[in-house]
Write a structure and sequence with these properties.
Helix content is 24%, strand content 45%. By secondary structure, it is of the alpha+beta class.
Length: 124
């Protein structure tokens, strides 16, 4: 069964904009408060709560203000029903080039990202 991707893609575009602009309020609007971010660093699983991540975003200089190149793309959207989506995206905040795996769910207030796992490469 095919599902309408437009509402999920709108949330992801908001995500891309929030990252590029280092806009914690924009990002906070699309992440569930209970969500967390997960990645592997030196073979160890790291976990960061969304409130802690948003606090770090607030202190960051935006890639937009630095005139850094923007290149973000939705690689895939996997929908099992009209309320759940698994989204793979690529984006960059040079010198970091990310692959993000986002789980989004349609909650009472609309689509929210409930989980983010990611990896990145460092490039000069």
């Amino acid at each position: 069964m095919a599902y309408d991707r437009s509402t999920v893609e709108a949330v992801i575009q908001h995500y891309f904009d929030g990252l590029y602009e280092a806009d914690a309020d924009k990002l906070g609007a699309i992440f569930a408060d209970s969500a967390d971010l997960r990645w592997v660093e030196k073979g160890e699983l790291k976990v960061l709560t969304v409130p802690d991540w948003l606090a770090a975003v607030r202190t960051r200089t935006s890639a937009k203000s630095e005139g850094k190149a923007r290149d973000d793309v939705i690689v895939s959207v996997d929908r099992s029903d009209d309320k759940t989506a698994f989204i793979k995206v690529r984006c960059q905040l040079p010198p970091r080039y990310f692959t993000d795996y986002l789980v989004a769910m349609k909650l009472t207030d609309g689509w929210q990202i409930v989980s983010k796992s990611y990896r990145y490469d460092l490039k000069d």
